[in-house]
């Protein structure tokens, strides 16, 4: 045997005592085969299943592919079955995976997969914009042809009613549209006959009607309501000053890794409805922490306002003894990132966002500022999400946990 083909000393010892069943080059080739997706006949799939079943290293944790995984929101876009019942396929990465819930979950968080998913949504957005632009162009062309045909049918030429492209007048009246109305009754100034000097016989004079023009720029209000949140995607990161147990401190979203978080937006301090919500959540926080969930309340008030409110008794409209953090967002950055800021009011909508252990947004609810929210329903939603994660199955309507 040539020296270059001899195994390393440690690997040779493992081979001698039967502690290793294959050489490193075999392991590398095998791993490469597992990660590639190719067409496979039923016979080849059956042979692969038999080989996997014989492999002692995976017999202890052997799982088969479950069709219910495709109904999970995080996997529904890209996960599909493989001819082998022990394998799964990521259609975005063109990659074969072991049919194991942990392996699939880790793959969904990998850098390569997240980049492929981002590219997919970018391409889809570009295609949607292209289709919408084509539809608008076709509609505009049809409208112009219809107007032109109507005017010609009335006996008008292009010089009688000069219209800009899209059916709008030129010059100072460019934001108004020229519309001819048929006059079913022909009256003169003295009450009979047709209009003297009228245009087109059976048609009354054209009038200009204001037409709302599409704005090419975004208003301040639309910019403020632009949201970065999307259910089943990562929640926007936040970091802010907060009041925790009556003390001023810094809080970061990363402080809650490994736990569910309910980011609870409310309108403003010193309000009857807001105080009732915060006090109710504070009284029920033990129920949420039992299921490993934290609640963080947020408003656009400053941390000094939070501190004053937290020192005020409940009888005076305060939240004395509050057991949940109150984070301050006076710059409105967090509220804008989550799409709940009302610029004309200067405060947030009543909204809450449920974020899971991985930082993925799982549930969103937004209410009118006049309506308070129910604590029991929020707790049910959290328990339902966690139970669905555990059993890897979708839940029916009105599901409630066993007592």
From TrEMBL:
This is thioredoxin-dependent peroxiredoxin. SUPFAM superfamilies: Thioredoxin-like. The keyword ATP-binding does not apply. The lineage of its organism: Eukaryota, Metazoa, Ecdysozoa, Arthropoda, Hexapoda. InterPro entries: AhpC/TSA, Peroxiredoxin, Thioredoxin-like_sf, Thioredoxin_domain. Belongs to the peroxiredoxin family. AhpC/Prx1 subfamily. CDD domains: PRX_Typ2cys. Keywords: Antioxidant, Oxidoreductase, Peroxidase, Redox-active center. It comes from the Eukaryota. Its EC number is 1.11.1.24.
């Amino acid at each position: 045997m040539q020296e270059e083909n001899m195994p390393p000393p440690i690997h040779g010892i493992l081979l001698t005592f039967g502690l290793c069943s294959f050489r490193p080059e075999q392991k590398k080739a095998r791993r490469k085969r597992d990660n590639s997706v190719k067409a496979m006949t039923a016979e080849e799939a059956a042979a692969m299943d038999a080989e996997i079943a014989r492999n002692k290293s995976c017999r202890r944790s052997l799982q088969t592919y479950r069709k219910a995984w495709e109904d999970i929101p995080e996997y529904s876009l890209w996960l599909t079955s493989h001819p082998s019942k022990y394998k799964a396929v990521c259609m975005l990465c063109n990659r074969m995976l072991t049919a194991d819930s942990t392996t699939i979950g880790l793959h969904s968080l990998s850098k390569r997969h997240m980049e492929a998913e981002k590219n997919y949504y970018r391409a889809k957005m570009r295609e949607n914009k292209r289709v919408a632009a084509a539809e608008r162009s076709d509609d505009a062309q049809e409208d112009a042809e219809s107007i032109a045909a109507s005017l010609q049918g009335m006996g008008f030429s292009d010089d009688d009613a000069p219209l800009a492209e899209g059916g709008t007048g030129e010059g100072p009246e460019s934001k108004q549209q020229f519309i001819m109305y048929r006059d079913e009754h022909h009256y003169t100034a003295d009450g009979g006959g047709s209009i003297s000097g009228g245009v087109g016989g059976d048609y009354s004079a054209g009038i200009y009607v204001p037409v709302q023009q599409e704005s090419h720029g975004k208003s301040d209000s639309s910019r403020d309501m632009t949201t970065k949140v999307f259910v089943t995607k990562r929640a926007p990161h936040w970091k802010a000053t907060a009041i925790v147990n009556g003390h001023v401190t810094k809080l970061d979203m990363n402080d809650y890794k490994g736990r569910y978080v309910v980011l609870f937006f409310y309108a403003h301090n010193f309000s009857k409805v807001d105080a009732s919500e915060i006090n109710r959540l504070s009284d029920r926080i033990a129920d949420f922490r039992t299921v490993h969930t934290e609640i963080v309340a947020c408003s656009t008030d400053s941390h000094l306002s939070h501190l004053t409110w937290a020192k005020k008794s409940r009888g005076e409209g305060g939240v004395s003894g509050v057991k949940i953090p109150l984070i301050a967002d006076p710059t409105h950055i967090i509220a804008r990132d989550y799409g709940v800021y009302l610029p004309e009011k200067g405060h947030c909508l009543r909204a809450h966002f449920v974020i899971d252990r991985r930082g993925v947004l799982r549930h969103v609810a937004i209410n009118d500022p006049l309506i308070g929210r129910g604590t029991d329903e929020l707790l049910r939603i959290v328990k339902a999400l966690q139970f669905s994660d555990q059993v890897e199955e979708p839940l029916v309507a009105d599901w409630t946990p066993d007592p």
